[in-house]
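Reopening this ticket.

The earlier resolution said the output was attached, but the attachment link was broken on my side. Pasting everything inline this time so it's all in one place.
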Amino acid sequence: MPQASTARGVERAQSAASVRLRTPISRLVMPSARRFATSRFFETGPLYDAAYSLCDVSDRMQAAGVWHWPSVEVHLDALALILSGDCGRTAATDNLLSGLRAIRDRIPRLPDAAG
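Inline output:
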């Protein structure tokens, strides 16, 4: 995954989130987040974890019928920070991911499809 393309996607999502457009969120943030989530297949260190967390948070908020922009913005900022560090895993990125998990854990889980 070319890093420059990924960085541009994060910048576009950050820009859109910063003005909190009245665009359906699925058209605003999710295409970029879903693309970043494919980073698992590349050597991207913590980028995958942060992107997956954003997808999970977004899915949970949509299912609950609530939207919390600061949670999205924190995830987008985390993606930008991880990219600026060349996707390396460090103590700082581990702490960052821990914070993202805390945000995600405050939002109710999606109902189990099998249940």
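Reporter confirms the inline version is readable. The chain has one domain: 3-105. The CA atoms of residues 50 and 79 lie 6 Å apart.
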